[in-house]
């Protein structure tokens, strides 16, 4: 049997080969189609049992078979695998579009919604039906026939363009590297970074027999140079390579995404208008917690207005420091991270490298699990012998208070070649009750790109990396601690985009609290927890340049939203012009003309964040405000933890996020906690 189709067990990664992909997808899709036709041709009125349950079964099987294909494309990329994945992605998209425009299915769901039994449904069941009807309408079900096929073509093209965009970013990132034999050029880099660059060199055949270091555009390498390299020319060179990735300004311009961006924005606009929306931003909000484009733009501009004066002051302070202490006359974008690190060291006596020895991976994981266990009344245990896709990957199970397994997750921590950059959580298996009664427990993929262990030294994380880990684990908890049993609203399924970051950003808070830090630090040599002076410095560092960081995020969010909300199909505004316009309004650091950040902005052009990047800030307001209840009642207070679990985590996508938030917090969200946590004093 095709191993991809063995969906009654955990994925057997060793058994998957590229030639399994196409046959598996063809089998799945033809069986699903046949089953759906059989379901809609039943004469009797549909019931939950006879209609929705079999559909859930199909969704579940598709996720379990197709999920690993996309996952491996991200963590173990090869040209062959990516080709097969892309080919099938097209078929899968086609299938979903077809299902989304299936009159028979639509009618059955309408009948369900009008049936007598609907009133007896649980909130979750009702939500499943309501979401289905909403999505049907968004999929163009009410469109005339010719418009429906137009819609289908648009969706396919968009899905392909997104995949192409992401692949261009990956290829362009890999296309550039710089081999350095003279150690002096890398002066300033700490040992851990030098070790990483040496390791990168040995991974490339061309340099295996030479002594030297390889600078690449993978994030850990890029960041190490930008933060530590004393050599200003090197910083500028690496900055330029990074900032021009996937653009016509790149050293190798064959992966230019400029045209893809134009096409994507154009097709998205057409798609939105086809469905009767004014623009794509309005379409995006149809499934979000936020109500109107004006509300979102107002929200972003309000935060920008409150933060920009402080951001300007922060930049002025940094500029003065760089002139006086570093001899940098005009602070350039490639100086900002470097000068900031030096300034931080001078004023805060704190650097990521100083903290690193306190955060050995083992201790950090122990702390993460202890906090999780204390707050949510569960336990976390590693399980050996489970099939994985790389030796680094580990597998853990989560048990409830009675010792029953409730969930599991894969943990893939380190950066390596052919693994997509960044960090993310993805669903491997969703919580769901089988029609025969068995409960399927959820499984998550947790993927990061941390600096791998060098030689026999255990890996130690920077505080940033620790925060990232907690963030992704928060997504994981949302997916894993759900109590929903209906596939479409279980865990993060059905959660609006602008609420999905609530649990993840919420979890980050523990990395800034003494109670949390005590659980997750043990110096690699002495075993000491993070001492008070470093903890104080860490606290101060949280507010360090926080307004500058705030306006940076607002720049991304506002660019994304305006690009979709103000799109003019007759005379599209050049993307670069809009980028500059937004920068004039919001940003305090002006990059050089060659900067092409939009060309590698995968979140919005290859991911699901189109006209939705604002969600990060939106959810930060929610998460900061939710955490402030722990500040009031005790950071590791299990009573509040369980309340959080039982409302926000348990309900998944079954209840409107505003309702859940109010159930937990006792009132509507307020912006104060976020500004306070960020150390921003509103003018
Ligand atoms: Zn996230």
Automatic annotation (TrEMBL):
Q: One of this protein's Pfam families, by short name?
A: TOP_N
The record's annotation in SUPFAM superfamilies points to: Metalloproteases ('zincins'), catalytic domain
InterPro entries per the record? Answer: M3A_DCP, MetalloPept_cat_dom_sf, Neurolysin/TOP_dom2, OpdA_N, Pept_M3A_M3B, Pept_M3A_M3B_dom
Q: Which key words tag this protein in UniProt?
A: Hydrolase, Metal-binding, Metalloprotease, Protease, Zinc
The protein's enzyme class: hydrolase
Catalysed reactions listed for this entry:
Hydrolysis of oligopeptides, with broad specificity. Gly or Ala commonly occur as P1 or P1' residues, but more distant residues are also important, as is shown by the fact that Z-Gly-Pro-Gly-|-Gly-Pro-Ala is cleaved, but not Z-(Gly)(5)
* Domain (Oligopeptidase A N-terminal) ranges: 29-147
Residues covered by the Peptidase M3A/M3B catalytic domain: 225-679
What does the Swiss-Prot or TrEMBL cofactor note state?
Binds 1 zinc ion.
EC number(s) per entry = 3.4.24.70
Q: Can you cite a GO biological process for this protein?
A: peptide metabolic process
Question: What start-end ranges are recorded for coiled-coil regions in this protein?
Answer: none
For this chain, one GO molecular function annotation is: metal ion binding
Q: Which GO terms describe its cellular component?
A: cytosol
Name the cofactor(s).
Zn(2+)
Organism superkingdom: Bacteria
Q: Which family does it belong to?
A: Belongs to the peptidase M3 family.
Q: What is this protein called?
A: oligopeptidase A
